Each structure stands twice: as structure tokens, then as C-alpha cells.
UniProtKB/TrEMBL annotation:
Domain SAM-dependent MTase RsmB/NOP-type: 213-589
MF terms (GO), sorted A to Z: RNA binding; RNA methyltransferase activity
Family: Belongs to the class I-like SAM-binding methyltransferase superfamily. RsmB/NOP family.
Species in which this protein is naturally found: Phaseolus coccineus (Scarlet runner bean)
Stated name of the protein: SAM-dependent MTase RsmB/NOP-type domain-containing protein
Active-site residues annotated for this sequence: 509 (nucleophile)
PROSITE patterns to which the protein is assigned, alphabetical: NOL1_NOP2_SUN (PS01153), PUA (PS50890), SAM_MT_RSMB_NOP (PS51686)
Amino acid sequence: MKKGRELFVGSYRRLHRNSIPFSTTHLHQTMSHSDPPNRYSYSPSLHWNPQLHQYFLNAYGADHFSRISAALSRPSRYSCIRVNTLRSAADAVVEKLRPLVSNVSVAVHSEFEDGESNPLKECLEDAPAPFSKCKIPGLDYVVFVWGSGPHRIDYGEAPPKEVIVSRKCAEAVLRGAQVYVPGVMACSAHVEKGDTVAVSVAVEQQGVDGGWGIPMTRGTVLQGSETDTYYLERNGLYIGQGTAMLSRAGMFRVSEGVGVDMKDRVYDLHSFHNLFEGEIFLQNLPSIIAAHALDPQRGERILDMCAAPGGKTTAIAILMKDEGEIIATDRSHNKVLHIQKLAAEMGLSCIKTYKLDALKSVCQRDDDTFTDPCCGNAKNDVTNQVFDSPNLEVEIVSPLVTEGKDERTNGRVYVSKADARKNMRRARNGPGRNQCVGGRVDRSKGFPPGSFDRVLLDAPCSALGLRPRLFAGEETIESLRHHAKYQRRMFDQAVQLVRPGGVIVYSTCTINPGENEALVRHALDKYKYLSLAPQHPRLGGPGLVGSCEFPDGYVEEWLRPGEEELVQRFDPSSPLDTIGFFIAKFLVGSKDT
């Protein structure tokens, strides 16, 4: 492995000396040689930071990483539905879905080019398209709804009338969504309601200052000529066509609603937005398997440290038959409210939610006299003592008011001009990421060490395994190292909170070994009482063995021989056709040794 590290450092340095920063100019040179017939197609290519690209080449090899990068730019060709077995059954859900979902041409490869068999192939046999119930043992409550693609779209005579959407909007459309008004960036002149329009994507570009963005004013008029904004950059980035639901003027005058009703899609996937609420939940297959890896048992006390949006939390609760206690925490007020809403929709009563920063999950006690349920005896009933606890606070956020009266004094409430301007902006733009329009959440100051049977840490990460992905340029070696440091600090909290004999499951949705295998290495080296445990079911592949030395001398250690089969790494380019995902399961031994 030493030889491999030396080769990596050498090639890394050569790339660093000779690399050309990826910029709009560079993209123009690349795109200008595209064949005109391929302009109205979907053939994206992810562009990575040069140093990060070399790092991934070292980890995976050139051919493998090329396949991963290509897979990330397209969606999975099926949707995975988790059935709430406390309210329904997979067969009943299939019957309800049948009249709502039209039959499509199921395009799931049973064999890939390398001859590797598709583990989901069995699910297709004897199943009427486009539905199939998962036949993997233990996952019979999972329903696959198969889609198809990529499709070649006939855009008619060029140039067609056109709408350019933001990259995030396009990624949602590729997963089955419609084009909503906020995602529209530009539009051809003279588009009227009912017109057929081609939909293309504006992907962020690097400016001369090194920053990334879209150098386009929202509302830009397209003339259909090579002088149009982003004309060359849109080659091979057409995701389908649909019917304009508003005129060009209307798309930029209203703030919500569907702008384009997609009719012909490059990838034909079904949308399940607001369908059978409380009965089904749309969730990626690896996320479902992460809940199974935790192996929750009835009556246990479980912590989901970074629980939003609540998919894994509710999956764990259903596996426990809603018997026991699940503490779900997140540092965002709005996200905690979302978990509460999802648990209520699914009829789950064992989930208790708190606003809490994962880095402060272990409470700090000054003495042993605390009787706080979140910082005392783990067996105390949290719900019965919420309002008596010094370490639990109720946070209530009311709708924003710019002026009013104090009911206690019947006097005017003073609002500064700065606050008034801020409230006006919020009223115009909607609530931000850290504000909400109202609701109550309980705030916790942490939990005592050893107070949980199992802990799930689905850590915030670089998310480089999510797909479809049309942009990856902003991530750097430095940003990935920052993610890894943050995750280690959270894992240190998780280790303290699990009792001896308990279980920790760590998961991410990234392909970055520094956030996956390197975290496992850190955990096993630092905490000698931790050991990797087998996972069931096992559908992912093995982890990465070895290490990587960077030009600055930093050595990133991964797994050692024999450990790779005890983790699950979901490769987006594999026959499973999932997102990139990683799962590690740890058994906690005696902490006295």
C-alpha cells in the first residue's frame, strides 16, 4: 500500500502543477466541439475539483470512478416505498397504487456489462409492471415502483421554445417532480399558456473570482440563437418537454405553482407527493437497510441523533411495533416540527422529539443530584417530566408580527425599524432555514452517558452519494476534511451515550472514504471496546481497504484486511442502482477495560 500512496502523492502534485481551473471559459471550449444533433439530449458530465478528482481516482481507480460519476448524474430507475405495516400491508398498497400509476416500460438491467447479477432481479419475476414487492428476507414491506429511461425526446424543429430551470429544480424533475415557478430561470420570448416547451438546465459555473454561481438574471429572455445566455453550456442538458401552465410573463410574476407540466421526460419516474400520507413513505433502499442494521427491539430506548427528516426514525419505530422509546433530535426547530408531523401522520406514539445540537448530546452534570430525565436516570419517563425539568425547555415560535399591543400592559409593543424591515423581508420571501411560522418543540440540554440501548448516527455529510447530481464543483479536499472532523466529534458523543452491550450504527450518503472508512478506523483505534458487527440484511458491497497520503503529509487510514466485509458500501454504479451510501455497525463492549 506504501507504493500506492507514493504514486498518489506524485500524481497529485503533477496534477496540481498542470491543472487548469474549471471555469466558464474552459466549459465553452469543451462544449463548442459538441455535435449539433446531440444538443437536445441528456448527456451530463460531472466536473470535480481537480485535487478531489485525483483523490477519488486513487480510492476507486479510473474506470470505477468514471462509472460512479456517470451514475451520480442520473436518477435510480425505480422508486422505493416503505409501507407502514402498523396501518397497512404491501399487497394492499400495491392494489391502491395500481389505478394511479400507469404502466411504463420497465427498464431494469438484470445483468450489467461485467456480468454481475442484479440482486433485485428476483423482485421482477412474476410481478405485474410497474410494481413489485421486495422478496429480500425481512424487507417484504417494501414496494418497488419501476420507472424507465433514459428516453430520447423529440423536440420537433429546432430551436424549440424553451424554459431554463435551476440545477436543483432539474434534479427534482429528474426524480419525477413538475417544474415549479421558483425554479424557472429564463424563458423564450412569446411563450403562452399551453405552449410546448423544451426544458434545459443552468448548472453553476466558476467565475473569475473562484466563486460558483449562475451568471444569469432570473427572467432572462431567450431568443433561440447562439447569443443566448448559457447557449453552449446547455448542450446535452435537456431533461424533457412539457406544457407551459403560465405565459412567460406569468412565470416571473407569481411566486408559486406549477410553471411547466412535464409530459415527455428523459427519465420517467412516478411522483408520490402527498399520496397515502401515513400509510407509505418514499425512502431510499439503503436508508431502510440502515434502520434494519440497528436491529431495534421492543421496549428499548433508542436515540436518533440527527433525525430529520424522520424517515429512519419512523422506520425504527415501526420495526419496534411502536413499543419502546425513540428520542429523535435535531438542531433545527423546523426540522423537529417536521419529524413531529411525520410521526403523527404515521400514528406513532413512541417517538419523542427534541431540539438539540448533536455536538451537545451528552449533558454536563455538576454533581450527582440531577433528577432531570435528560440528564439523570435513563429510566425516567421523559414525557411525564418535561415541564418540571431544568434541562428541558419549551420553545414556542409565534407568527411574525411587526406591530401590536402587549396584552399584559395594554400598551404598544416597540418594534425597531431594523426588526420591521426584517419582518417585511420574511413576509415577502417566506421563512428562512432557521425560522418557522409557528409551533412548539421541546429543547434538551443533553442526555446522561450510557442512557441508550442503541444509537443511530446518520451524520450530516458531503452528500456526494445523492443522485441525480448535476453539480459537484464546490467540494474540495479541505471541505471534505471539515465534514470528517465534524462527524468524529458527533461520533464521540454517540459512544458516550450507549450503554455497554449496546449498538451504534453510523451511516452517511456520501462516496467519500474520508467520511466513511476513515471514521470507522478512527472509532476502532480510539475506542478499544468497540468492534464491528455483521449487518442484516446485507445488500451493499465491501468497504475500502488501505490508506491515502496527501501532499501535505496527512495520512488518511481506511479499513484493514478482514474489516471490509463488516461494513456496507452502496455503490451508485452497481446493479442495485441506489444512491451512494455507507453503513457501519458497532458493538459496545465493557468501557472499564
